[in-house]
UniProtKB/TrEMBL annotation:
NDH-1 shuttles electrons from NADH, via FMN and iron-sulfur (Fe-S) centers, to quinones in the respiratory chain. Belongs to the complex I 51 kDa subunit family. Residues 346-391 form the NADH-ubiquinone oxidoreductase 51kDa subunit iron-sulphur binding domain. InterPro entries: NADH-UbQ_OxRdtase_51kDa_CS (IPR001949), NADH-UbQ_OxRdtase_suF (IPR011537), Nuo51_FMN-bd (IPR011538), Nuo51_FMN-bd_sf (IPR037225), Nuop51_4Fe4S-bd (IPR019575), Nuop51_4Fe4S-bd_sf (IPR037207). This is NADH-quinone oxidoreductase subunit F. The gene is nuoF. It catalyses: a quinone + NADH + 5 H(+)(in) = a quinol + NAD(+) + 4 H(+)(out).
């Protein structure tokens, strides 16, 4: 797995001043264990938070820094923390780390957990102090066996050093941390489905309200944050709000740095810590090295399989939520995928929708029935057996499964790439319509929303 610095071709070394997430990484890719982590200023932020900061001050600092969730939704972290109850009589609260990284083409959290497990633990320790949570869980994707091994070892090291458990750092504050491996469902990335799974229930999303901050794990106040989000907390506490905000490029509304990447047939696929506001072109050309010889960029996704496709001319968009929104899709996880000119978009979308259909929890009708319907139509078009009206039916499904039409965000994310693919490459879908097919009666397919 590749990691580079801000400058192209590794000309600038990672440093604590510019790379709060990755400056401690070893060149050999091995994990940074407790002694080395502490030698690199590890747990200094936790000691500062425990000794010099009131709990509410920690929450306010994170809020002022503008830290947003790094799992894809981008909700302000400090605001989320502020939803936890202030009532001191509620003495059972939980902090959950969402480490169920199931988004195709995304592996940023895996790198942090495998190579910097103590960074995540320190972030959770400070967060637990701020939120007055006495117990935490890292809900880990079951396939991440190396991450589980490294996290469990790091937890034991932290316990032995008095950084977890009872009376942490002599403060009188107790915090237990457990690594919980999931059974492997994409939907567990949704925080309430994760909570259900942690409780031993079927991984269905819950109705909101009540929100987890009021009624979460086992009915108690709960805060759920992503791995990368929590890993930002120590640097914010250690170095302050103004420094953290200064990391982002001019024009970006998102603060700090972000783990971004590029995969596909690029010369240098990898993962890099970059400031919010870099352009897609910098990411693609300066870091990923552009396309391999003999391939041409056809389109790209900016942040995982659940984001819409963009064209090469959109590479000049800035990589932050608002910058990507200006060109019609979402930042997502920030790990982009290049699609080369040899790829048929119908086949690519059929593959994607098969995944999303299989991973639907089946709780609501539009998602449970709509996604398999899209797969059936895409298979027919891929085989040249599509019927007249099938493309309009697919567009109808994009509308019916869009934001606000389903119980959670699974289906809207699943159909966003489908809608954008038809928008930019409709001719490839039309090529799969059988020339002798009859027009399907309008009542046999959904009405196109907005038509």
């Amino acid at each position: 797995m590749t990691l580079t610095s801000f400058g192209p071709a590794n000309r600038i070394k990672r440093s604590a001043e510019t790379h709060p997430l990755t400056w401690r990484l070893r060149d050999d890719g091995e994990a940074v264990w407790l002694d080395e982590y502490q030698a690199k200023n590890g747990y200094a932020a936790a000691r500062k938070a425990f000794a010099d900061m009131a709990q509410d001050d920690i929450v306010q600092t994170v809020k002022d820094a503008g830290l947003k969730g790094r799992g894809g939704a981008g909700f302000p972290t400090g605001v989320k923390w502020g939803l936890m109850p202030k009532d001191e009589s509620i003495n059972i609260r939980y902090l959950l780390c969402n480490a169920d990284e199931m988004e195709p083409n995304t592996w940023k959290d895996r790198m942090l957990m495998e190579q910097l497990p103590h960074l995540l633990i320190e972030g959770m320790l400070i967060s637990a102090r701020a939120l007055k949570t006495y117990r935490g869980y890292i809900f880990l994707r079951g396939e991440y066996t190396t991450a589980a091994k490294h996290l469990n070892r790091a937890v034991e090291e932290a316990k032995a050093a008095g950084l977890l458990g009872k009376n942490i750092l002599g403060s009188g504050f107790d915090f237990e941390l457990f690594v919980h491996t999931g059974a492997g469902r994409y939907i567990c990335g949704e925080e309430t489905a994760l909570i259900n799974s942690l409780e031993g229930r079927r991984a269905n999303p819950r109705s909101k309200p009540p929100f987890p901050a009021a009624v979460g794990v086992w009915g108690k106040p709960t805060c759920v944050n992503n791995v990368e989000t929590l890993c930002n907390v120590p640097a914010i506490i250690a170095d302050g709000v103004d420094w953290y905000k200064s990391l982002a490029r001019e024009g970006s509304e998102d603060m700090g740095t972000k783990l971004m990447g590029f995969s596909g047939k690029v010369k240098n696929p990898g993962l890099w810590e970059l400031p919010f506001g870099v352009t897609g072109r910098e990411l693609f050309e300066d870091y990923a090295g552009g396309m391999r010889d003999g391939f041409k960029l056809k389109c790209w996704q900016p942040g995982g399989a659940g984001t819409g496709f963009l064209l090469p001319e959109h590479l000049d968009a800035q990589m932050y939520a608002g910058g990507i929104a200006k060109v019609g899709t979402r930042m997502g996880t920030g790990l982009a995928m290049a699609v080369d000119d040899s790829v048929n978009m119908v086949s690519l979308l059929r593959n994607m929708e098969e995944f999303f259909s299989r991973e639907s929890c089946g709780f609501c009708t539009p998602c449970r029935d709509g996604l398999p319907w899209s797969v059936k139509l895409l298979r027919a078009i891929e085989n040249g057996e599509g019927q007249a009206g099938d493309i309009e039916t697919l567009l109808g499904l994009v509308g019916f499964l869009g934001p606000g039409k389903t119980f959670c965000a699974h289906a809207p994310g699943a159909v966003e790439p489908l809608g954008s693919a038809i928008k930019y490459f409709r001719h490839e879908f039309e090529a799969g319509i059988a020339p002798t097919s009859a027009v399907v009666p309008p009542l046999a397919r959904p009405i196109v929303v907005g038509a």
